[in-house]
Amino acid sequence: MSFSIKDNKIFFVRAGEAACLSACGKDCIRFQAAPSGKLIEQNWTLLPQEAPAKAWAEEGRAVLETGTMRAELYENGKTIYYRDGKKILEELSELTFDAQFRNYRNKGSDLWTARVSFLPNEDEHFYGLGHEATDCFDLKGCTMDLRHLNSKCAIPFVYSSLGYGFLWNQPSTGRCELAHNRTRWTSDATRQVDYVVIGGGPREVAGALADLTGHAPKMPDWGLGFWQCRLRYENQEQLLSVARRYKELGIPLDVIVIDYFHWTEQGDYRFDPKYWPDPKAMTEELHKMGIKLMVSMWPTINEHSENYRHMIENNMLIRTVSGSNRVFEFYGPQAEIDATNPETRAYVWQRLKENYIDNGVDLLWFDEAEPEIHPEHFDNLILSVGNGSETALLFPYYYAQLVYDGMKESGREDILTLSRCSYLGAQKFANLIWSGDIPSTFESLRMQIKSGLNMAMCGMPWWTTDIGGFYGGDIESDYFRELIVRWFQYGLFCPVMRLHGSRNGHDRTRDILEPTGGDNEIWSFGDRDFEILRDLIFLRERLRPYLRRHMDIASETGVPVMRPMFFDYRTIRSATRSASSTSSETTSCLPRSCVRARQATASICRRANGFSPATARNTRAASGMRFRRPCMNSSPL
After folding, report:
1. Which of 1, 59, 260, 527 could form a disulfide with 14 if both were Cys (CB 3.0 to 4.6 A apart)?
2. Is the pLDDT of residue 490 over 60?
3. Could you say which of 124, 132, 265, 437 is catalytic?
């Protein structure tokens, strides 16, 4: 075993491992270790920064210091991290006598399974790891799979209450255990262990994370208002009639959305002329009303598509280790495009541009962005960048890059793409993430609040949900009519305010794939709800200057618009005390615009007249259904 110091980096070699400690940003220390004995240059989506550092070797260990951070690497392979002289993270040996730090197992090639364990800290709390409906805000005690699924976006990053961020720089599937007996990160397939420890409070870590993975651009002004969507508008006249009614009612509408199966076939990327006879005229009318148009795109494709033969013959589709390349079943077996291949991205963008953008479509909705496959055997996927077990988490990153690069090349600056999934760095591609297909229940609403805050901790400032939930909503029920009001109130203060859902009432007797569901416009839920929802949209309009300012701050600094209380308070405890004190004491901590918005929201809520959780509880009790109020558990730091 030996240490060597070069360019203020520590290199360490021992039997079965080569390792490196380096500074990769302000208060950021990167650790890399290769079981092959040879480190490789692979950053994935990381953007290492130059940072002043000092490294030296002394008896039994080597030390690296940068800013407030210090790392010590010992001869037995153990690493310990300090911030401002206080120990924050220490590796845990899996064997007695500290005989093994980091565990590897070869997969019969140059890929390895790898895991790293750290000592637990009793008073430590974790936040991040993307979004998943776990009903957990504090993730201490949780075990999370690192894989993308519908309504689960795995971002391998956590912020610790001890004052550091941990970025697991591995786009492989795997697992994160934030247990009481250990903290452990596992990669299913990798060539080397790679992680970054970022020292600082929430704001400092958020800024460093943005520097290391990319800053979100400035959100277009039209993204700040109200978005109208449903599953689904079947034809051109139906969509225009909804837009016209909003205009007639004088209700501001920034974006209206065309969902899936507007196309001729999965993989064709164009309107079906039977239902959308004149897209150019449609977008021109919408633009005259001041409304932008978003259109859904899926990565699925089959042999009936006009693009299939070209794409499969040019290796633009995801392949499989064994079996057919049809990895998803939806109206027949479907293959999926390989967005990690730059040639795929260029080809698909040209089809999207010709058939949508050149016809006036303003932005795209990249659904199925995980990508969704069944069964979820990511190790059976062959992507341009490698086997799925090593690289599967990267798919939504390149999926977002597809449209961002194309828009930029076309001279567009007002770029935004809605996506069902994301990965570290995709925020720089103007990626707006939503939480997927979630149920229309109060329990789901409660979980979304926590999911959104954890997503914010991962450097993703643009995030939203389907207001009202996606499935199971009965627009005639008292329960749903209360839920839509409460969710609207939450959506008002999300980065993007988007109404969407598949409401009960699909007419499947007609000869059409995926017919429209129940109505989902703000006048669809009764007169009382209409007045409340209309006023909330006008309140969003009054918040535009505030939203504009804080969206710009998010772009410049990495600090998310929607964030946990500990971003603005020293501890959750003090924030809890502040929130439970008198009204004047509480509001004095908030910007005046937020105070006015809160007071206006309270006034609108009072107009709900009987739409209280107690009312819904009584309604559901009579029907034998359970009801729980939406609430967020507090967890002391």
Report:
1. 1
2. yes
3. 437
